[in-house]
Structure formats: structure tokens, C-alpha cells
User: Which sequence fits this backbone?
């Protein structure tokens, strides 16, 4: 079955969706509002990420399953290297002819006659508006667009007369030179901005209501903590025991940087973790002061919940996240819940209505590979659009979505910062792979390919999803076997 498909956005998610839908035999058109692929990772695009940003995941966990990073790519790398990777990916798989750059989607409407489909209204860079009809719709425009400011914080900063900026608009800390800065919110972004601010500012305070464990990218003996998530044996460990092991390991790794409890950073929930190499040292050097949440402001004075007051504050930086809103899409099709913080999507992809022809990609957070997450979603969606995958009834999907939300409420006591979080990444990948038909049998590999089995029996590989099934990749086996050599190629002289 063929058909036409529209993809909105050409960032990481949009590129994966475009490729996978093309692989499925669909005629694909992608609309991208900027001039380049890569979304916020490309400094030439609108609202790029801060210039100092370095990936939180190592290179071997940041690539798509059929397109490894180039040999010699640093273990952790900057935004411009990632932007180059996405450009190479688009060129390698001939995606660029399918992408209409500088085209902004204005409205997406469901059309049920003469057949189910979508009418897309868009505007090009010259201001000309047009419409086009499609059979299928994939929205992969991301959710780092509209800032979210909690009512509690908004009320607390009403009396502030200095400068207030959201992290969305932060590019570098040069403007903070010799200024007094307060950063509100401790996630990966809040940690990064606090570190950068402290290198230029007169003072930097980091305000957090919940705290967080801080883990470095590399710890003792060159250990890469995130690699622990590749341990296949964890799938065979009882969940209660795995929870205890995770809690113990996270606390041990974070205490490598400093005593989180003594620093007033120990979180209520063990899953509150950020990646930051420098923050513990900036705190130890007195360059970043940890404060509780902001409770009120008067003029340029900021009052915190621990009784501390910071005077003469020039700037408050709000690292309070983003709200999920899609102004081009009618709320009768998908209405974000919890003040825009939760998208009611089945398996993080499908709205209850129109799930046979509408899907979302990349609308999740995950303590693992985002690239593989969006790719597996895209492959699943492609098979769904081809009618190779059947979903539950609308009633069953709605029930599972609410069950997911209830689980977060129970576990985080209503204080979860991210409601579209994938809690168990490999269980999620494997569930999708089972239905796609690309999950390998390790037991069969043990008998058919002992060498490959040796590399897979104790450790997951993202490339394993390209060994078999739809759109398998002939280079998958070599990529798995040579993964260690590629992983550390940056350290070898060229």
C-alpha cells in the first residue's frame, strides 16, 4: 500500500521519520521552517542551543542504528559536530530533495472525504501561502518552543525589576559579565547555564526546589556511567532488585562529585539525575551558590525558601522547561494535559483518534539514546501506516494513557518534572522492535554466529535492531563487532 505522507520538522526526529516513511514506500514531503536540518543543534537555525553545549550521551549512543558516527568523532561532542552528522545523514539517504526548507506550517486539518487524510496549509519564505493534501501525517516539530513558567514561580518573580529571561533565549554567558545572576531550576539546562554564568558573573545562585543527583560524563577509571544502561543482564533482574541497584549506583556515582545531601541537593526521588562535569567544582569553589526555591522578589532582591536573600540581582534565568502546544493543530485532535506538560499519546506516538493516519515522533524524555528512540518510533509508525501493526481499541488506548499518567503521580507524588518520560528505555525499544519484526533472538545468534553472540550476550547494541526484519542494514554485524574500536578511535593518533 502506497500513499503520501507529510512530516513537520527536519530536526533529529523529522529526519528519522522522513527516512523511515520513505523506506516504507511512501511519498514523503517534509516541511522545515528553518534553512537547515538538525533543529536546535544547528547554530544557523532559529533558537539554537547554547554554544557551549556538549552532548550528555557518548557518540556511540547518539547515532542512528544504520548510520554510525564517523571514525574519530570525540566521545562527547559539540552542537556543530552533531549538526554535521545530521547533514551527512540527510545527504547519505537522499532526504534533502524531500525537505521544503523555510516553509512554516500554519494549519493541519483532518479531512474525511473523499477519504481520510490531511490538508496542510503552509507559508514559504516569500510569504506565499498554499495547501496540500496528504494521506498520513507525522508531527516531529519538537517541544522546545514555548517556554513553561510554573504559576508558583511566576507569582514569586512578579516584584522583580531586573532582567528576566527563559533558558530558551540563552545563547552564552558573555552578557552576564560582572552581573549578579540567579538561575531558577535544576535540570541539565539549569546546571549548564549556572556553570557558564559563574565563569563571567560577579555571583551566580542556583535555585532548586527538588534538588538532583549530579553525575559526570566520565568518572573513576574512565567509567562512562550512562553505558550501564546497555547492560542486557538487567532485563533478567527482578524489578525490585533492579530499583535498589539503580538507586545505589546513582548515589555512588553522584557522591563521586560531592555529598549531595550536605550540599542541599539530594532529591526526593532517585530518578532526579542530571549530567554535569563542572557544577560540583563550581559549587566547591564558591562560584555557584545553591539556594532553595524563590518565594518572592522585591525590586532587585530575591528571597529564597531557606531564608537567604540575594541583593542587587541583575538577571533571573528561568530553566523551567517547555509546554507542549501545537497551534497548527486543532485541540479536538490532541489536547495537551497538565497545563501543557503532558501529551496523551499511546506509546508516546498516537493520539486516540485518527491513529491510523496521524502520529507524533520525539515527544518524550529519556535517560538513554534519543536518536534510537525517535528512530524506533519512526519505524513503528511506518509499519503502522502500512497496516502491518494493529493497535488496541480507542478505549483501551485511552485507558493505558491515563494509567501511565497515574503511575507518574504515584511514583513522584505529583511532582514529576517530565510526564512524557520513558521509564525503561530498553523495554520500550524491545516492545516496538517485537511488533516491527526487527528484534533479534540472542539464543538463535548463539548457535548461528558465536562471534556476534559474544558481543551481544551481556550488552545491548543499538545496531542489533538492523540485523533482521524490515529495512535491515548489511553493516549492522560489523558495527556491533567493531563498536569498541570505533568508540575510542578519537583517542588514537590519526
Assistant:
Amino acid at each position: 500500500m502506497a500513499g503520501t505522507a507529510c512530516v513537520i520538522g527536519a530536526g533529529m526526529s523529522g529526519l528519522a521519520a522522513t527516512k523511515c516513511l520513505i523506506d516504507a514506500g511512501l511519498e514523503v514531503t517534509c516541511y522545515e521552517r528553518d534553512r537547515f536540518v538538525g533543529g536546535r543543534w544547528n547554530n544557523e537555525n532559529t533558537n539554537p542551543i547554547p554554544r557551549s553545549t556538549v552532548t550528555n550521551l557518548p557518540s556511540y549512543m547518539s547515532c542512528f542504528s544504520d548510520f554510525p558516527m564517523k571514525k574519530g568523532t570525540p566521545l562527547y561532542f559539540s552542537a556543530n559536530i552533531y549538526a554535521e552528522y545530521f547533514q551527512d545523514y540527510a545527504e547519505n539517504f537522499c532526504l534533502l530533495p524531500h525537505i521544503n526548507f523555510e516553509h512554516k506550517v500554519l494549519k493541519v486539518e483532518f479531512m474525511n472525504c473523499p477519504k481520510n487524510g490531511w490538508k496542510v496549509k503552509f507559508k514559504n519564505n516569500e510569504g506565499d501561502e498554499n495547501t496540500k493534501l496528504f494521506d498520513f501525517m507525522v508531527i516531529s516539530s519538537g517541544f522546545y518552543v514555548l517556554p513553561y513558567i510554573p504559576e508558583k514561580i511566576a507569582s514569586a518573580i512578579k516584584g522583580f525589576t531586573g532582567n528576566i529571561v527563559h533558558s530558551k533565549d540563552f545563547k552564552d554567558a558573555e552578557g552576564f559579565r560582572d552581573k549578579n545572576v540567579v538561575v531558577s531550576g535544576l535540570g541539565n539546562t539549569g546546571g549548564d547555564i549556572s556553570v557558564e554564568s559563574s565563569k563571567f558573573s560577579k555571583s551566580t545562585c542556583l535555585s532548586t526546589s527538588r534538588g538532583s543527583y549530579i553525575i559526570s560524563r566520565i568518572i573513576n577509571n574512565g567509567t562512562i556511567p550512562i553505558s550501564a544502561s546497555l547492560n542486557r543482564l538487567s532485563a533478567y533482574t527482578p524489578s525490585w532488585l533492579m530499583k535498589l541497584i539503580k538507586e545505589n549506583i546513582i548515589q555512588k556515582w553522584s557522591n563521586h562529585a560531592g555529598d549531595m545531601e550536605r550540599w542541599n541537593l539530594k532529591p526526593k526521588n532517585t530518578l532526579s539525575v542530571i549530567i554535569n562535569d563542572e557544577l560540583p567544582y563550581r559549587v566547591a569553589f564558591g562560584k555557584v551558590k545553591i539556594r532553595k526555591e524563590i518565594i518572592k522578589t522585591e525590586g532587585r532582591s530575591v528571597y529564597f525558601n531557606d531564608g537567604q536573600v540575594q541583593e542587587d540581582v541583575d538577571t533571573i534565568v528561568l530553566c523551567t522547561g517547555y509546554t507542549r502546544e501545537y497551534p497548527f493543530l486543532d485541540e479536538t485532535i490532541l489536547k495537551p494535559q497538565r497545563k501543557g506538560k503532558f501529551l496523551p499519546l499511546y506509546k508516546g506516538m498516537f493520539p486516540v483518534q485518527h491513529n491510523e493516519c496521524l502520529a507524533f515522533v520525539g515527544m518524550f524524555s529519556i535517560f538513554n539514546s534519543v536518536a534510537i528512540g525517535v528512530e524506533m518510533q519512526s519505524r513503528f509508525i511506518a509499519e503502522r501506516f502500512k497496516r502491518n501493526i494493529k493497535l488496541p481499541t480507542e478505549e483501551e488506548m485511552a485507558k493505558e494513557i491515563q494509567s501511565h499518567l497515574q503511575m507518574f503521580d504515584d511514583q513522584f507524588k505529583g511532582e514529576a518534572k517530565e510526564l512524557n518520560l520513558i521509564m525503561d528505555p530498553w523495554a520500550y525499544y524491545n516492545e516496538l522492535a517485537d511488533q516491527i519484526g526487527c528484534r533479534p533472538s540472542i539464543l538463535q545468534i548463539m548457535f548461528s554466529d558465536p562471534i556476534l553472540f559474544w558481543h551481544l550476550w551481556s550488552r545491548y547494541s543499538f545496531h542489533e535492531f538492523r540485523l533482521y526484519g524490515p529495512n535491515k542494514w548489511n553493516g549492522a554485524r560489523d558495527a556491533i563487532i567493531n563498536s569498541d574500536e570505533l568508540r575510542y578511535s578519537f583517542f588514537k593518533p590519526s
The radius of gyration is 23 Å. The first strand starts at residue 4 and ends at 8.
